């Protein structure tokens, strides 16, 4: 706390120093400004004096036209210079107003910073007081809780001692009861073992009888299976014969069909040859008619067209017969395929019947095996019952041990809870301390940030003022350079004037310019 206060005081002192330095610099700048204003006023006065001297010279020599012309030019230039000087004066006034405005802003900012600093200091002192109050309250609460904890610990120790005595008494009673139950259970287990041995012998007798019956049934099923297989083989043999006959019939029909097809093809070829021969004969006749009856050309052409139409009709008939024969061949092929498919279906049906017979025999075998397995399961169930009775006795003993262990575990849990409560109280106290420290650090950090921001603002405004002063200096230098240029121009103008008229005035003006 003292360190943070010392840091804040040092920062405040540094701020005050920077503000005082900025005020000193501002005073220096104002002095420079006043000097520049005085210099401007002196220059203006000198110019006015020169103008008056020129007017006097002009009045002395009114007859000289060239001099009057030159003087008029000088007057024009002087008026322009006066206008420039007026403009410069206006700019000077504007600059003065700007400087006054900046000074007012600076004072306002200084007041604002002072107010901000005062408010921040009051807030910080209030927060500090609040934090100290909170810390004292937390400290009191901690002491109270520590006292309560000590009381609770004493009460818990007493309660644990009483509970341990009660549990030991109960444990002793439970041990005696468990020993008695164990004796009874051992007697029951002995009786159960005798009963199970008797049942085992009975079940073994029944098992041997069931196995003998199952063997007899198996033999019967095997004989039935053999007879079914023999019947199936006979049926397959009969079906194979039928299939062979159907295949022979199909082959015969196919050979007959092929013969019919060949006959139809030969007939078609013969008809084609006949029609071709007729066609050739008709062509010959047409050639003869063309040679003999050239005059009846049109009639011959008509007859040739008729003959062509007839030939086309004959060709169409031939195509129709060919298509019909192809259709017959396709129909015969379809019948052949249908007969083959029917034969395959019959064979498949016989195979399915055989498969059904096999499955029935398999099912009967499986049922016999399932009966044997059920008998085995019944024997296993009896054995498991015996085991469960033995395990029940063991479980009772285990329950008693578990109850004892649970009592010990509860005692341990109570001790753990006590330790956790102590740890929680300690953690809460540490958290309160840490919160207090963090709050103090936050306050100091915020104050430091605010002071840093104020320093930055002062620096920025200082730089702005410096830049403005530099601009003013540069403007003053420009004014000086302009005045010097005007003085040189005046010297040149005065040098052009005749030496007799105003030697005294010229020398006086030159001396004044040199002084400037």
Distance between the termini: 64 Å
Instruction: Detail the poorly predicted runs.
Output: 499-516
Supply Rg. Answer: 70 Å
Biggest sheet, in brief?
none
The outline comes out as flat
Total beta-strand segments = 0
Structural class category: mainly alpha
Helix content: over 70%
Give the rounded overall mean pLDDT: 69
| Order of SSEs | HHHH
Tally of individual domains: 2
Strand content: under 5%
User: What is the helix tally?
Assistant: 4
Keywords: Coiled coil
Give an account of the 3D structure.
The structure is a single chain. This protein is an all-alpha fold and 516 residues long. The chain folds into 2 domains: 2-168 and 440-515; 216-384. Helices cover 97% and strands 0% of the residues. It contains 4 helices and no strands. The protein has helices spanning 2-60, 65-292, 297-496, 503-515. α1 (2-60) packs across α2 and α3 crosses α4. The radius of gyration is 70 Å and the shape is flat. Mean pLDDT is 69; it is low at 499-516.
């Amino acid at each position: 706390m003292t360190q943070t206060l010392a840091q804040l005081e040092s920062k405040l002192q540094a701020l005050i120093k920077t503000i005082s330095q900025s005020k000193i610099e501002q005073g220096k700048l104002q002095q420079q400004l006043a000097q520049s204003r005085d210099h401007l006023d002196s220059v203006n006065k000198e110019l006015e004096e020169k103008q008056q001297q020129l007017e006097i010279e002009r009045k002395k020599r009114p007859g000289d036209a060239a001099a009057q012309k030159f003087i008029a030019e000088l007057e024009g230039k002087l008026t322009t210079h006066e206008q420039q000087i007026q403009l410069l004066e206006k700019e000077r006034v504007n600059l003065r107003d700007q400087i006054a405005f900046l000074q007012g802003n600076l004072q306002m900012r200084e007041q604002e910073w002072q107010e901000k600093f005062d408010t921040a200091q009051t807030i910080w002192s209030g927060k500090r007081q609040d934090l100290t109050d909170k810390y004292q309250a937390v400290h009191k609460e901690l002491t109270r809780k520590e006292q309560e904890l000590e009381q609770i610990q004493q009460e818990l120790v007493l309660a644990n001692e009483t509970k341990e005595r009660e549990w030991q008494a109960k444990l002793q009673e439970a041990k005696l009861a468990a020993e008695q139950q164990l004796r009874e259970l051992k007697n029951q287990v002995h009786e159960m073992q005798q009963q199970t041995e008797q049942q085992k012998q009975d079940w073994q007798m029944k098992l041997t009888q069931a196995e003998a019956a199952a063997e007899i049934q198996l033999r019967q099923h095997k004989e039935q299976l053999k007879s079914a297989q023999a019947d199936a083989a006979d049926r397959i043999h009969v079906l194979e014969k039928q299939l062979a006959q159907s295949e022979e019939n199909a082959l015969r029909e196919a050979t007959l069909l092929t013969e019919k097809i060949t006959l139809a093809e030969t007939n078609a070829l013969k008809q084609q040859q006949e029609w071709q021969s007729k066609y050739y004969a008709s062509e010959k006749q047409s050639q003869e008619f063309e040679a003999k009856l050239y005059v009846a050309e049109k009639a011959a052409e008509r007859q040739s067209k008729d003959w062509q139409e007839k030939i086309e009709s004959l060709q169409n008939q031939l195509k129709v017969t060919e298509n019909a024969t192809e259709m017959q061949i396709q129909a015969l092929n379809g019948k052949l395929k249908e007969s083959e498919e029917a034969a395959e279906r019959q064979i498949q049906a016989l195979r399915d019947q055989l498969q059904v017979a096999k499955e029935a025999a398999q099912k009967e075998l499986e049922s016999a095996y399932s009966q044997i397995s059920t008998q085995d399961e019944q024997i296993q169930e009896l054995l498991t019952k015996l085991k469960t009775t033995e395990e029940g006795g063991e479980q009772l003993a285990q329950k008693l041990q578990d109850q004892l262990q649970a009592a010990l575990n509860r005692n341990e849990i109570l001790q753990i809870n006590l330790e956790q409560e102590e740890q929680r109280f300690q953690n809460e106290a540490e958290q309160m301390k840490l919160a207090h420290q963090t709050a103090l650090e936050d306050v100091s950090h915020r104050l430091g940030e605010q002071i840093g921001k104020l320093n930055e603002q002062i620096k920025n405004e200082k730089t702005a003022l410096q830049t403005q002063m530099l601009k003013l200096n540069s403007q003053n230098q420009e004014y000086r350079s302009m005045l010097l240029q005007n003085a040189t121009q005046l010297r040149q103008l005065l040098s052009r004037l005749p030496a007799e008229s105003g030697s005294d005035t010229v020398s006086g003006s030159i001396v004044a310019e040199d002084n400037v």
